[in-house]
Specification:
The protein is 5% helix and 42% strand. The strands form three sheets. It has a four-stranded antiparallel beta sheet.
């Protein structure tokens, strides 16, 4: 009998991976959802737009938040905050107005979030992050020696 739990990744193009606070490994795939590997039972769970309401089936970057949540950067210029314990999206924010093509996300020591994008570096303060508030985009500005050298920040 076929198992309802997939025993392999849902796609061949792996864009990112991270080990969460519970020891599970998350894989962002190209158009095949987020795959979570559980080493305890050696199985995969697949989350996607259809079964978990993710913003996209393509995820480029993950980062473990200090509070135990998981930050996920989706293809459609969206930051999603996922609660690992409840297995639910707490909130998501689309950045189509200021940034596109998320490459990497990090959280600094103060809890602020930085996202490397094709349009610059997105900064979300720790205070604004939890209220889905404002964000700032640092980008290249002509004739401004203090701006970024290039708006395409991919690392």
């Amino acid at each position: 009998q076929d198992s309802p739990i997939p025993q392999k990744l849902s796609g061949n193009a792996i864009l990112s991976s991270i080990k969460d606070s519970q020891g599970k490994v998350w894989f962002g795939t190209w158009e095949k959802g987020v795959n979570i590997y559980n080493p305890d039972n050696q199985s995969f769970t697949v989350y996607n737009k259809q079964n978990k309401g993710l913003a996209s089936n393509t995820h480029f970057s993950f980062n473990n938040a200090k509070n135990g949540h998981l930050y996920m950067c989706a293809w459609e210029n969206t930051l999603e905050v996922f609660d690992i314990k409840t297995q639910k999206i707490l909130w998501s924010k689309n950045f189509s107005e200021g940034a596109k093509y998320f490459y990497r996300i990090i959280e600094d020591k103060k809890g602020n979030v930085w996202i490397a994008t094709a349009n610059g570096l997105v900064f979300i303060s720790a205070k604004d992050l939890h209220t889905k508030g404002d964000f700032k985009v640092y980008a290249k500005k002509e004739n401004d020696s203090l701006s970024l050298n290039d708006s395409n920040v991919n690392e």
